[in-house]
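Cross-posting from the modeling subforum.

Setting up a comparison between two proteins and wanted a second pair of eyes on the formatting. Protein 1 (sequence, then structure tokens):
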Amino acid sequence: MALVLSEEQSMLRDSARGLISDKAPVSHLRHLRDSKDATGFSRELWKSFAEMGFAGLLVPEQFGGSGLGCVEAGIVIEEIGRTLMPPPNQPHNSRDRRWRKDRGGLT
């Protein structure tokens, strides 16, 4: 099955790729590893990531998120994986799902 991105999805991919390749090249991960950074991720990078709306892709607009779907989240996650950008947490999707369910966003 071929996955053809819509124009909006391509723009999302290009925005994520631009931010991540600029601020989180593989050397960024290596620096965090070699410096034995206690947090394991860059707060400044994730602040930029959140300011672009990527942290709230699956959160409904009524709660301050982007209200997008799993395909769009997958597009951004693929870009994160492209440079091995370290996330501040791993289980964020399951936590987001619980948050949305608690607020009536999921059934």
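Protein 2 (same layout):
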Amino acid sequence: MENTTKGKFRQESRLIGGLILIVIGAALLLRNAGFPLPYWLFSWPVILILIGLYNGVKHKFASNTWIILIAIGSFFLFDRVMDLSLQPYFWPIAIIAAGVIFIVRPDKSYRNKFNGFEKKNDPENYSFDSSKIETVANDSFTNDSSDYLTINSVFSGVNRAVVSKNFRGGKATCIFGGADIDFSQAEIQGKAEINLEVVFGGIKLVIPPHWTVINEIDGMFHGVDDKRKISNLIANNPEKILLLKGSVVFGGVDIKSY
């Protein structure tokens, strides 16, 4: 039943993506044929809004990435259509919005992702410790011994060294920011899932060479670069699996091993 539901939703997201491409192609065809269309219809803010819409549909509107993309695109589109010269106010508004996100965002938004992961470990028994989340202003790494990782990087950089011997997963969100996450001293039992949400930012992951990494990250104008040596990939342990999920828009993820 679960596979059927996932397959149905995958078809729906492909349908939405196909319809968006058809609309774009039809608009270009009409413009080239001399049909009068608004000039702003072919601007980059509209493209950003369409990417955000597709991203929201693809992830069931569960992440914040689609909201950010649509908000940025709408801001600059409104500026172009109304000719109000709002661009000088973009960064102050963006910083205010980032502060609001930090205040109102629930701490346990990601916990349900682990419910079907390892049923014998109930995520509700895990208490979130806000002291684990901190922004590092230098090159040092902050040790994190918790089994669940949570990183929020907005206009900042975070360096985190995971030292848990029973790492189960977590979530990292980077908006106009970055994060370096070092798993070289961590251990996983079975499978662990990390959800990465990156918008105009980047994440670097240092993975033990014997872990198997499964990449299911998608997005737009992004890159996921696995820089591990081929010899390390051959020696991967199928009993230690790190599953990467989420979306990256105008950003990248680097995977390394030492």
